[in-house]
Write a structure and sequence with these properties.
With 249 residues, this protein is an all-alpha fold. It has helices at 5-17, 21-38, 41-57, 61-78, 84-99, 103-120, 126-141, 145-160, 166-184, 190-206, 213-228, 232-246. The chain contains 12 helices and no strands.
Length: 249
């Protein structure tokens, strides 16, 4: 009997909204065992993707890499190496490798995902922007700055074609600021950093949706960066925003 992915993911989302990561993990492990027993290859792939993301977030290196490799093996078993679903797994796995200091190992996976996405997705599909941003982060780790900056600019081009993606544009501008610091040093990159921080602020203020969970997540992620660069007043504004959203006020 096939596993119902909607039911599985809805329950997972409930645990994640409550920040109950251990229950989320137990939930995924239970259904992974059920999927294996049922021989449901698609569910096995889905759950391995979710587990690699969750364990990456929890900093569980060995488990995250294990689930990434399991998902990659599952793709080969299913014979779907060149479809969009496989590309998403390549992207997720590459992000795991990057997160745990293995950016070099992740680059070929990013490249495979890029080839498939660019061939099969429309130019305004925000999955492309996610790929470009994550691949660029890995390239920065490897000091391949020109390639990284080109990908960040590609991400911005995609996001500007999609209505309501101003928060994601803000993250990309902050990534460009961090890239400049890594390449040039904090003092030499100051002008570039300030320019990109101003653009990020503009995007966050222009967003028409300042009440969603996604906006809160982006504000939380961006607040730390603004604080790091000395924009303490704006950091506090973002903190107040995401706390208000999380508390439902």
């Amino acid at each position: 009997m096939a596993i119902d992915p909607k039911r599985l993911l809805d329950k997972l989302d409930n645990f994640l909204r409550q920040n109950d990561y251990e229950s989320a993990k137990d939930h995924l492990l239970y259904w992974l065992n059920e999927a294996k027993g049922a021989g449901d290859d698609r569910a096995i792939l889905l759950i391995n993707n979710e587990l690699m993301g969750l364990t990456r977030k929890l900093g569980q290196k060995d488990e995250a890499i294990f689930y990434a490799e399991s998902a990659l093996n599952q793709i080969v078993k299913m014979g779907i190496e060149n479809n969009v679903g496989a590309a998403t797994t390549y992207l997720n796995s590459a992000t795991v490798f990057k997160a745990f200091g293995k950016a070099e190992e992740g680059i070929p996976l990013f490249q495979k995902a890029r080839e498939i996405y660019e061939k099969n997705l429309k130019s305004d599909d925000d999955r492309l922007a996610g790929l470009y941003n994550n691949m660029a982060l890995a390239l920065v780790d490897l000091k391949r700055y020109d390639e990284a900056k080109a990908l960040y600019e590609r991400a911005l081009l995609v996001l500007k074609r999609v209505k309501g993606k101003e928060p994601e544009q803000a993250i990309t501008y902050l990534n460009l600021a961090s890239c400049a610091e890594s390449e040039l040093g904090l003092e030499n990159a100051q002008e570039i950093i300030e320019e990109n921080l101003e653009k990020a602020m503009e995007c966050l203020e222009q967003s028409e949706d300042k009440v969603s969970g996604n906006y809160a997540f982006v504000c939380e992620k961006c607040a730390t960066v603004f604080g790091y660069y000395g924009y303490f007043y704006y950091e506090n504004i973002l903190k107040e925003r995401y706390k208000r959203i999380y508390e439902g006020n």
